[in-house]
Amino acid sequence: MHRSAAEGRFGVAEPAGRASVCARTLTIGVFTNALPLNTPKSQRNEKPATTDAHNLSRKAVAFGIMLTVRNGNASDLIAPRRESPRSLCDGPWSRTERMLKKEFTDFIFATNTDGSGKAASYVRALDMLGPILTKHYPHPIVSGSMWHGFTLSELKAIHEWLCAEARKGSANAKALGFESPSYLANNFCSAAVKAYGEFMAAEAFEDEIVAKVSGETSGKSVAQKAETLIETTAKTELEAHLDLTKKEGVDKLAAVKVRVNQDIFRKIVLMNYSNKCCVTGLDVPAVLQASHISSWKEDAANRLNPENGLCLSATYHEAFDAHLISFDEDYRLIVSKDVKGHYASAAAKSYFIDREGEKIIMPTKYLPSQTLLAKHRELLAC
Fold first, then answer.
1. How far apart are CA 338 and CA 375, in angstroms?
2. CA 207 to chain centre
3. What is the mean pLDDT of the segment spanning 96-114?
4. In angstroms, rounded to a whole number, what is the distance separating the alpha carbons of residues 205 and 234?
């Protein structure tokens, strides 16, 4: 499926030289190379005129930042090249279909304002659509799956096709191969695709903010700039995907902004720790979490401050939030007396007790705030 340079967000034309996250084109300045996913390397012309800019964009992708380079200057987003249809993007941010499903499901749960159980049904609808689009859609999708990433303009076209097919009734849904014809006839599949577009738009917006704050030298300046950008641009960037004339759309925008804030913090923190748990070095993104030293709920000023963040795998995150572990003035692991005095199992020794005194894997840029860690240590479980 091809798109013009002006196509982009879900239903909105984008400026030339700008690409949505997960797009199939790589944009560098005014140079656009439209490459199908299965284009052999021998047939690619990957060398842009601005070699330094190209190298910068490659490094940015390697660190999880998606940038566009315009006239040699880094700004906005690029969509990284993908070799495998199962991977949303290259480098440490690569995601399998399962991971993408989970993130989409989490997004629906977090932003669903009417309380209905849409997430599982939307995932089922998108699962159902992959083989059907491969057979019947005028522009068959490459991988046979909805979970390899689409441009927002592609999702808009799929949405419009589904609406048109839904108007033909249940008999048409059966002919297309829907195991539950009502999913198409009642516009549930088109609603799922629209929600998928909202998710992709939020992802693109998050990556744009991360790129714009990545040059800040302190965690506080990162937080201040990110908050300003989110507050001043979120409505403009996301309103095209939400009906803000209705209360539901306004409520959803507010929910999406909360989700965006949390995701931006996670991306910055994981990037700061090179996508590794700072205690164990575990580098599986699906189990890595951005832990707030001072809680999100109680410390609004430091919500987006990477100096208020630690990259921890799920077990250590839970233990840290429960004040069963902390870190001293030299960033060495402290284990609470509660753990040492009450848990003698081999697992407790392996996970916690034997690791006490070990120094964390240090971040690349923003050191954890010792002021915030000192407050955390005060609450260490005795």
1. 18
2. 8
3. 82
4. 8
